[in-house]
């Protein structure tokens, strides 16, 4: 398969999440993942885009979230780009699942799901453009 890629730009509103998760699931299947893996990719993308809408944009709906899907022989890459408040990899603290169950708190679980369901989760900031990116990578076995 050649290195296909395409983009989707949505308003920063949670009502568009089902479009994004549907796309992530279909893209996973096209990339060659099975149903279970595709469902996990869909959940990870849902968490990542929800985080952008609620945290990077603080729920303000007039911004945009851009998704770029890249298919390679080795992996499906989903790049989520925005111009809201970013998170750096060194700020990302994953909760311990056992502790989380004992002492549930708000936040952190989405990052844990993303890191569990994807092979790689990267956060990058482009100082020049003022855009932030969350890159989710799922290897194709």
Automatic annotation (TrEMBL):
Entry keyword annotation includes Thylakoid: no
Domain of life assignment: Bacteria
Ranges where the Histidine kinase/HSP90-like ATPase domain occurs: 11-132
Keywords, ordered alphabetically: Kinase, Serine/threonine-protein kinase, Transferase
Protein's UniProt keywords contain Transferase: yes
Family annotation (InterPro entries): Anti-sigma-factor_SerPK, HATPase_C_sf, HATPase_dom
Protein known as: Histidine kinase/HSP90-like ATPase domain-containing protein
Organism from which the protein derives: Geothrix oryzae
């Amino acid at each position: 398969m050649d290195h296909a890629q395409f983009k989707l730009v949505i308003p920063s509103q949670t009502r568009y999440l089902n479009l994004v998760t549907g796309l992530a699931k279909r893209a996973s299947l096209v990339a060659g993942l099975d149903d279970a893996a595709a469902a996990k990719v869909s959940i990870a993308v849902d968490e990542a885009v929800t985080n952008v809408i609620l945290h990077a944009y603080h729920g303000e709906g007039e911004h945009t979230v851009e998704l770029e899907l890249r298919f390679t022989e080795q992996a499906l890459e989903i790049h989520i780009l925005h111009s809201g408040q970013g998170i750096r990899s060194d700020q990302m603290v994953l909760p311990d699942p056992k502790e989380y169950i004992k002492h549930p708190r708000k936040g952190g679980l989405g990052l844990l799901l993303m890191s569990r369901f994807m092979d790689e989760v990267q956060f990058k900031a482009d100082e020049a453009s003022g855009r932030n990116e969350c890159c989710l990578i799922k290897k194709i076995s």
